[in-house]
Amino acid sequence: MVEPLNKIAFSLGPLSVHWYGIILGTAALVGLFLAIQEGKRFNIIPDFFMDLLLVGVPSAIIGARLYFVAFKWDYYSQHPGEIIRVWEGGIAIYGALIGAIIGTSIYIRRKGYNFWRIADIAAPSLLAGQAIGRWGNFVNQEAHGGPVEESFLRNTLHLPDFIVNQMWIEGQFYHPTFLYESLWNLLGIGVLFLLRRQRFVRSGELFLGYFIWYSIGRFFIEGLRTDSLAVDAPGWVEGLMNALWSPMNGVFEPGTMDYGNVRISQLLAILFIIVAVVLIVVRRKTGAAQERYSDPIVSTKEMITIVEAPAAGTVKPVQTPEKPEAPKD
C-alpha cells in the first residue's frame, strides 16, 4: 500500500509545521471571510470579526483540549507533558464550541452587541470551520469509523485514491467518517444560507438551527467511530441511544467502543437538539426573539457614542438667547 501522508507539511529549522495546524488555520480564515461578508449587510466593520476570531480561536482550542483531556484524565494524569500537544489531534468539537461561546460572548457584550445577533451571523462560519477542520483528522488518520472493505470505499462510495489510501491504517481500511461529517456540514451551510433570507427567522434561531443541524449529523456519524469518548450510563440511556441510531443498522455496522456503553458525543447531540428546540419555542413565546434576523444590528456602545459625541464636522446648533423683558416700573 501507499505510505500515509506526512503529518508535517514543512520545517523551518527546529520548527515543524503540521498539516493539522495549516488546515485549522485555513478553516478559521474561511469562517472569518464568511462572517465579514455577511457582516457588511449590517454595517459591521471587518475589524470586529477579526478581533472576534482572535478571541474565539484560542478559547475554542483551550475548551476543546480541556474537554478531551478531562475524559482521558487517567492517561494524561500520567503524561502531563502531552496535554499541550494539540497538533497531534485529540480535541473535541463540543468542547471547542463551549470554549468559543464563553470567550466570544464576553467580547461581544463588551462591544455592546446582542450575542444572539452576532452568533447568527457566525453560524455558517462554524459549519465551514468544522467542514474544513475535519480534513486535519484525515491527515492524522484519526476520528475514523470501523473497518470496511476496500471495495466499499472504491466501488460503493467511489472515493479517489488519495482518500482510500489514507484510510489504510495499520493493515485495515476504515470508514472515512471525517468525510461524512465534512459533507454534512457543507450541506448545512447551504441550509443556513437559505434560512437567513427568510423573513420568519428570528434572532438566535440561525445559531440554534446550527446546533440542531450539526447535532443530527454528529449523532449518526459518531455511531460509526471507534475512538469515541464514552461513559457507563444507565441501561435505559443505552437503550435510547441504540434505538435512535437503529435506522443506520440496515446500512452500517456501529463502531466498537473500548470502554463505556454510551458515546458522550451522541448523548450531547441529543441534549443540544432538545435544548435548541426548547429555546426557540421559549424565546418566541416570551418575546425574547422579537427581532428578525434581517433587522438592523446596532451596538449599544455606538448608540452612546452618537449621543455623547457628534460626528466630526457636525455643527452643533447654538441656542439663541431670549430677548430680556423690559424692566417693570
Automatic annotation (TrEMBL):
Bilayer disposition of the protein: Multi-pass membrane protein
The enzyme's E.C. designation: 2.5.1.145
Statement: the UniProt record of this protein carries the keyword NAD: no
GO terms for cellular component: plasma membrane
Pathway(s) annotated for this protein in UniProt: Protein modification; lipoprotein biosynthesis (diacylglyceryl transfer)
EC supergroup of this enzyme: transferase
Binding site for a 1,2-diacyl-sn-glycero-3-phospho-(1'-sn-glycerol): R134
Compartments (UniProt record): Cell membrane
Bilayer-crossing regions: 17-36, 48-71, 91-108, 207-224, 264-282
GO molecular function: phosphatidylglycerol-prolipoprotein diacylglyceryl transferase activity
A biological-process GO annotation: lipoprotein biosynthetic process
Annotated Pfam families: LGT
Entries under InterPro entries matching the protein: Lgt (IPR001640)
Family indicated by similarity: Belongs to the Lgt family.
Summary of the function given for this chain in its UniProt record: Catalyzes the transfer of the diacylglyceryl group from phosphatidylglycerol to the sulfhydryl group of the N-terminal cysteine of a prolipoprotein, the first step in the formation of mature lipoproteins.
HAMAP family (UniProt xref): Lgt
Protein name: Phosphatidylglycerol--prolipoprotein diacylglyceryl transferase
UniProt source species: Paenibacillus swuensis
